[in-house]
Amino acid sequence: MRLSPRVDGWLLELHSAEPKRRERVAESLSSLSENFFDHRKIPKSVRAELIGEISSLRDDSEVAVRRCVAQLAGLAGFPSSETEELLGHLLKDPDSDVRARAAWACGTIGVASPPFWHTLLSHSEDAEKDVRWRVVWALQRIRPSQEVGDAQL
Questions:
Q1: What percent of the chain has pLDDT over 70?
Q2: Is 73 buried (19+), middle (13-18) or exposed (0-12) by CB count in 10 A?
Q3: Considering the chain, what is the average pLDDT of its residues?
Q4: Alpha-carbon gap, residue 84 to 35, rounded angstroms
Q5: Would you call 135 helix, strand, or coil by DSSP?
Q6: Contact 82, 51 (CB under 8 A)
Q7: How far apart are CA 74 and CA 123, in angstroms?
Q8: What interhelical angle do 63-76 and 96-109 show, nearest 10?
Q9: What is the distance between the alpha carbons of residues 85 and 137, in angstroms, rounded to a whole number?
Q10: How many CA atoms lie within 13 A of 69 on its CB side?
Q11: pLDDT tens figures, 33-65
Q12: Per-residue DSSP letter, 152
């Protein structure tokens, strides 16, 4: 893919048939710096390719992989309809940490992603406090705080 030899290798291993291997690799990828893509000046075309590749893992049986997918989508910072669809799907995940990371990813993409506004707003009353907090945080990053409205923690 052209991110870095190590990261490209990890991305390939996310598709391993071994669940424990996928889990370990997902944890390694989830530890990438928030500035990884910007510091390396990763072009938009590669970011779009990454979103396409990780989208196929959105229903992986390993929760660590789904958490990683949400994290990578935010780190890539690539607003697109495919990203919106991926994060919208992850916001419905049974695991609250996946949902919280998906909300974080929406907010990290920030002002470049106003389409996420309605997707996020529908999750502002999630059963889990951490998810609700992330949703409100993301909404504030996407729109001015006065527009957050009745989204409550």
A1: 88
A2: buried
A3: 86
A4: 21
A5: helix
A6: yes
A7: 17
A8: 10
A9: 20
A10: 32
A11: 888 888 788 899 999 999 999 999 999 999 999
A12: -
